[in-house]
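Give me structure tokens for this 325-residue protein.
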Amino acid sequence: MMSKSRCDHGVCTVMFRVFRSSVLNFKGYNNLSVELVIALQAFVSSETYPPNEKKLSGGRSSYGSGKGRSHQGHTKYGFTLVKGKANHPMEDYHVAKFVQYHGRELGLFAIYDGHLGDKVPAYLQKNLFHNILKEEEFWTDPGRSISKAYERTDQAILSHSPDLGRGGSTAVTAILMNGRNLWVANVGDSRAVLSKRGQAIQLSVDHEPNTERNSIENKGGFVSNMPGDVARVNGQLAVSRAFGDKNLKSHLRSDPDITSANVDGDTDLLIIASDGVWKVMANQEAVDIAKRIKDPQKAAKQIIVESLNRESKDDISCIVVRFTG
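Here you go.
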């Protein structure tokens, strides 16, 4: 009789890591459906380990796809995240959920696009909304509370730099209050786009080195514009505002741009995405895709598929929030 044998733990661990690396660095998107890529990446994400392996990351890895809805209205959301073609771990993290807070419903949505590691975006996923909501003035002055929480969160990241490393992250956050009032804030180039009657309205501001050159130079930094490359702060970072980045912080800003919008009968949907989308797609193109697909999860997937078809190489994250229909 053939006996069953268990794989030696060391061998299993090596085999798992080889398989995991192959999947997470997979580059054949054009020949494989995005659904299968998402499923494979989710299976081998940092929440999946061989026996006795421990998770070292500070947050919940953002892979895969999902959806949800408001408990008090018709608003629905869906999200999809896919690792890019770079040879490093997934650095995009997200938040997408409805919560009850002090007797009111809040929709919390965010994309955090990390660089030089995933520790800062993982920290933001766990802490930024918590810090915003605990501000005493949140219900009376949301804008001021968001601004203060962004600043305090960045200071906390910098004070924990030995644990969180030298990396950083963009952030775009959206808070939907009682289904009617939308507050959007951002640092970096992750973007939020609203659709009203099918027309795209950008709510966030892309913080790029060339547009904030004066601020960078006044702080003693410089902006490089090398042929074939994007503008970079001190020849390194392609955004002019970010969380973390302790080595560059003296030349960067971390204060957010903040805007508010009323959600009314003309408001169709909100798209929040990392620059893996926006490098290859205009705001109106993304809205046109999402508008014709009623299921927001399928809409987010289709935006990802189109981004991949246009050869986006970065990590790609997309949340679609549908207010009507």
